[in-house]
């Protein structure tokens, strides 16, 4: 496609503007939602496998490379280790040969993708301290470096944190992500639908999301709800002293 890989777009711009990242992320969510509705797990979601239709920021996004994709049979879980290490979910490392893993692995990978788009660097990388990438992922510990994330909204950070939850049963699902307040942006959704569903196709069948409910409006800008069972493992720089802040901000994609 004319716009090339998302990888090169992020690398050339260092990090995407939040509104652009939101438009791309919404389209990726919808693509993965379609796969999951047909019982298919992608298993290798990464910037190199996301193509852009043009050099413009407002463009169509396509998820590609289904070499690692598999059909998830009813009541069955995947039990093979595959994919790109930096984007693999913890359960792929810890449960691939035992209890297996399911659709939630794609939600984790999308969380890593969104982190890269917004921050301009990966959340897990071999240059971060003495832990291997595998151990970093299994622990689910990452840092949002202030110099990179200070202009990113709290709602966008919340989506990242809820997708990068180690326990797949507590991780935000694709459907939950689509209902998150950050994505209740009517202008963005209408723009995405105009790109995804050209005139004369299925656009009329796709209803725009409803206006945010009072609860969603109240949640905007608010922190996690008291008693929330989701664990917040990622932290903003400044919450705790980081061992290698310079390396985190310069780590390659």
Automatic annotation (TrEMBL):
TM helices/strands, residue ranges: none
One matching Pfam family: Pkinase
Keyword Kinase on entry: yes
UniProtKB keywords: Kinase, Transferase
Domain of life: Eukaryota
Annotated stretches, region: Disordered: 206-253
Domain Protein kinase: start-end pairs: 1-183
Gene Ontology terms, MF aspect: ATP binding; protein kinase activity
Protein name: Serine/threonine-protein kinase Chk2 isoform X1
Organism of derivation: Lates japonicus
Taxonomic lineage from the root: Eukaryota, Metazoa, Chordata, Craniata, Vertebrata
